[in-house]
Design goal:
Layout lengths: L1 H15 L9 H14 L3 H13 L1 H28 L30
Helix pairs in contact: 2-4, 3-4
Length: about 110
């Protein structure tokens, strides 16, 4: 009986995503959420490095740590939200909430982001 339930739920999930073959769909939202949750700790060294590059060592160990910690919380929160709500098309058409970048290793990666 358990196998039938698992098979039915799996089939329902597969068929519910069959129409979502465009770029921003529920599976991309789920992947984006997982990626943001996994890579959120990398925001701390990025914040420290960016502050050191722009303002020096003192800023790195004050403002950089604070900014990195804030970005960890922000990216983890958005990642958890996107994992939980991945089947729901909100924001419109599954657009990303974070676009600075959408993924941590996006076009403007790491310390080089502004």
């Amino acid at each position: 009986m358990r196998r039938i339930v698992v098979l039915a739920v799996s089939a329902a999930l597969v068929f519910s995503f069959a129409g979502a073959v465009y770029a921003d769909g529920p599976l991309k939202k789920l992947g984006r959420g997982i990626a943001n949750l996994v890579t959120c700790p990398l925001e701390l060294p990025t914040g420290i490095g960016r502050a050191a590059t722009e303002d020096g060592a003192i800023a790195a160990f004050t403002w950089g740590i604070l900014k990195g910690t804030f970005n960890i919380v922000k990216r983890a929160g958005v990642g958890a939200y996107e994992i939980i709500t991945f089947p729901v098309p909100f924001p419109a058409d599954y657009k990303p909430i974070l676009d600075d970048p959408e993924f941590f290793f996006g076009k403007e990666m790491g310390v080089f982001r502004k």
